[in-house]
Prior knowledge:
alpha+beta, seven-stranded antiparallel β-sheet, 6 helices, 17% helix, globular
Amino acid sequence: xxxxxxxxxxxxxxxxxxxxxxxxxxxxxxxxxxxxxxxxxxxxxxxxxxxxxxxxxxxxxxxxxxxxxxxxxxxxxxxxxxxxxxxxxxxxxxxxxxxxxxxxxxxxxxxxxxxxxxxxxxxxxxxxxxxxxxxxxxxxxxxxxxxxxxxxxxxxxxxxxxxxxxxxxxxxxxxxxxxxxxxxxxxxxxxxxxxxxxxxxxxxxxxxxxxxxxxxxxxxxxxxxxxxx
Length: 229
């Protein structure tokens, strides 16, 4: 099949675009509200932007009330936020945190979804204590993109990662992060999710030029600046 996105003439019950860009890392992002309470919400349009220094970005459509998301407004006001990795055992809590409006009787999202919080080291933001990986992030800028209607107006937030927490039990004896052991949850299309429970390795082709290969290796390690050899 082929369809033009402007015409949206795919003839399917649901738009297939999000189901073809998969799996997508879930940006489970915590921020601090203006009244001092804590907010957390999942964003499936989240990814690394670059690695040295490490930048991330996520995009947020307006909410169903025609307003910008609280996460976006909190980040622009405080200039900081936290990424909490969603492991399989946290999937239900993550999904529950996507509620558009907190029911009466709850002081913040952490209480509502039933997860324990802890304070970050470098930013004034609460983190999900049981999350296996956290990024402490410093706000850089917002790109505001037009959409086809009010809800589709998009805020693209760029942040700089200034601190990373990894639970020691998920670092292998070889010094690698045990992603299969963490079993992170990722977003598919529709209301579907998946869990990373296996992996395989493929090394890239080697270059004859030793200096170029050295720079390629540094890029794979996430270190862009060459060191003295």
